[in-house]
């Protein structure tokens, strides 16, 4: 092929996006330093450029080419959705003059993500069922779209100057609008997608600018075009947007990437447009089984980017199969490129960063860097035939075989136990009966006051945990530090006059690690960080085998805390769906099966807590509302609901089970409440203000106790007594006083005592005042 046309060819292998944190979480450190005023925006950008430059070099080492557009320009300072919003000028009205749409794009993104003095930050929402949370742009009928190409042009040019021709990656117009919410003041029923025709010309301008700056290919991410609930309207929007962008003058080649599910009808919608390449997820999705002749003919002229390497999970997987799947795409077009199924932001940087990981488990894994190598292997196999990569395929198959037969992957005892579960195992005595027993034994006042679990994680607590986990402190020293923390926390609660106490979760760095450390079947990493939002990240556990409990997990701390008070203490567990959502799950069996194993572990833990004298247990399931919101309509068969029930149904009638489901919209889980069959269900309605009342009304219909959450714990603001009274009064309009609990929205780990103590004091006082008026 001639040099000229060669430069237009799509790279044979590439990834849709690469982790942005940096191998040592440089992004987290830089964003924190900037937030604390230790770094200017310019210095922050310099840190970001260092991360980008290291990523480029690494990707070339791993087999991508510096100049063929195979390297994605997928870095983002805070979030890729915010970047797209800033690029098209979608600044919510409520930010007023604080953000200049034509000003510095990095500054604008940071302000939208962090908020300003007068404007709270944009909300966040789960990005296509993953742990990553994107910011939610606010778009209204009067949003004035205008181009701010700075950030995208700058990154591209910086790479060009360093000798790389990279491929800018931008959230596409349809996905941007689908992920946006109506700007405050928009008329009821306003749909941001109605602004498509106004935003597309701005994208056209952006594309032209990028072409001018040297981009040969631009990737437009359109994951909103796939999945169960994609509407005709969305598909029509995609067709019209890409027809327009395809016809725009002076543009680079266009690669529209879908991900997170089967492309379905979106393929036929994109086929008639002039985009040159379409990305399909062939890991969690597949190609449409039939295509009409016209679509077929049109697709044959495009490049299909076959996402055959799993971007959403950490398994090394079946490489030979990935090659077969990629080769199968040739029945649609001769031009097939190999890629990941999604961006690699969902996996950590590198398995080689994990010297302490069990060597056998490590061989089964592929993090981002290993996946890039896998893409390169499959691309080579596709070009030269599988014989050319025979040894790589063999090594991958051997690892897969080892994983199938390794001890612990299937544990006969665990499997037998799951097999004995019956309908009875899943049923408690009827709620009303339990409720009467609990009323008598607990003897709580109306509107009982409590908290959701965690107390402030002070520097002392963090330091004690760190000294212990790095081996500096002995177990005895650690235990006595934690006991001291618990004693302090109990004393604070006694002093405040709360009715139901908690032990405060000092021993937990997060909701999951503390549990998984004590479970068979999980491995923990040292550096396996995955971005959640901006600089925030989590280290998911790797769930590789059947799950059983090595020992009681929470009992010792909880028993100790209960021994310090005569008030009832609420034990604190993380629920099955949340444990799974914060783990890399196994791909060799349905999630539902894994969830049942975890449920049985929690069931045993609850039984042990009961034996230790606990009368109340809370199971935290923040992951549940997201799951239910993402569309599972049949609650009875939803694995997350079933697992919650299996975990809690063994509790004695006199044990009060609380479900904390974390959502700020009680209506979102209203239908699930009766199914969960918890005695008390808690939310974060405080964040939603009095708007949450309708949702609370719906939740109240389940005839259970509710703990709506009376103030937002995410803000350092201390709520006034009268404000909490108002919230309670509003709640009492829709639920009876005998069923209303009083608590903050969620745990207090991110707060200081200077914030938490007065806030809780006001909470207790408000409850007392309202009680006095009953
Ligand atoms: N018990 C946990 C805490 O207080 C609940 C966390 C959550 O719901 N996200 O921190
Ligand atoms: Zn919560």
Automatic annotation (TrEMBL):
Molecular function GO terms recorded = 5-methyltetrahydropteroyltriglutamate-homocysteine S-methyltransferase activity; zinc ion binding
Residues that span the membrane, as ranges = none
- What are its GO biological-process terms? methionine biosynthetic process; methylation
In this chain, Zn(2+) 1 is annotated as bound at 660, 684, 746
Query: What CDD domains would the database entry show?
Result: CIMS_C_terminal_like
Q: What does this protein do?
A: Catalyzes the transfer of a methyl group from 5-methyltetrahydrofolate to homocysteine resulting in methionine formation.
Residue positions annotated to bind Zn(2+) 2 are 662
Q: Which Enzyme Commission numbers does its entry carry?
A: 2.1.1.14
Cofactor list: Zn(2+)
Q: Which family does it belong to?
A: Belongs to the vitamin-B12 independent methionine synthase family.
UniProt KW Zinc keyword: yes
- Cofactor binding mode and count: Binds 2 Zn(2+) ions per subunit.
> Which residue numbers delimit the Cobalamin-independent methionine synthase MetE N-terminal domain?
15-331
- Has UniProt tagged this entry with the keyword Chloroplast? no
For the protein in the UniProt heading, the enzyme class is transferase
Task: Give start and end of each Cobalamin-independent methionine synthase MetE C-terminal/archaeal domain.
Answer: 447-768
| Superkingdom as given in the UniProt entry | Bacteria
- InterPro entries to which the protein is assigned, alphabetical: Cbl-indep_Met_Synth_N (IPR013215), Cobalamin-indep_Met_synthase (IPR006276), Met_Synth_C/arc (IPR002629), UROD/MetE-like_sf (IPR038071)
Q: Identify this protein by name.
A: 5-methyltetrahydropteroyltriglutamate--homocysteine S-methyltransferase
